[in-house]
Amino acid sequence: MDQDDIIYTYVGKQIRRLRRESMMTQEALAQKIGLTRTSVTNIEAARQRPPISMIYKIAELFKTDVGKLFPTSIKDAEFSLKTWEEEEGRKRWKRTALKLSLEESRSFLALAEASKSEDEGLLQVILGLWGAQNELVQKQLRKDYPFIIGKVEGMLID
């Protein structure tokens, strides 16, 4: 990710945070700033780069200083993005766990807390979940732990 990508990702996350804090939908924000909902979605996800004038318009709408939408430094932005990404990952895992049985949920949340560790205990938990043949669990594991799935599948073959 180059510096511009980092900045626009940070700006998108800040816009999303302000919109949610204001209890505003993407559709409502889009109408207020003269964009489509899809454009707001893309700006928040850093797939679309809004012009600086649009960022000022958004800051005015939320009655905040435009500087609060930008990182103070690239290093701070990288740290914030990593923190946000980890938090989103935890929320995604918890939402998935709610769809499972109580026992599966406990195992699944334990896996989420272990967070991308490669120790043998974690591999055994993953192997247990994988062995349950729960499609929802397998899909989430493939998405969040692709570097471990090869090891798990290797353990199943052995």
Spell out the blueprint of helices and strands.
Elements: H1 3-21, H2 26-33, H3 37-44, H4 52-61, H5 74-97, H6 102-114, H7 120-131, H8 135-144, H9 146-157
Structure explained in plain terms:
The protein is mostly helical and 158 residues long. The protein is 73% helix and 0% strand. Helix 2 (26-33) packs across helix 3, helix 6 (102-114) packs antiparallel against helix 7 (120-131) and helix 7 packs across helix 9. The chain is globular, with a radius of gyration of 20 Å.
The mean pLDDT is 77
H/E element order? HHHHHHHHH
Q: Low-confidence runs (pLDDT<50, min 5 residues)?
A: none
Helix content: over 70%
| Head-to-tail CA distance between termini | 38 Å
β-strand number: 0
**Count of alpha and pi helical runs:** 9
Secondary-structure-based class equals mainly alpha
Q: How would you sum up the major sheet? A: none
How many structural domains in the coordinates? 2
What would the principal axes of the Cα set say about the shape?
globular
β-strand percent reads under 5%
Rg, rounded, reads: 20 Å
Tag the structure with descriptive keywords.
about 160 residues, 2 domains, mainly alpha, single chain
Write a compact overview of the structure shown.
The chain has helices at residues 3-21, 26-33, 37-44, 52-61, 74-97, 102-114, 120-131, 135-144, 146-157.
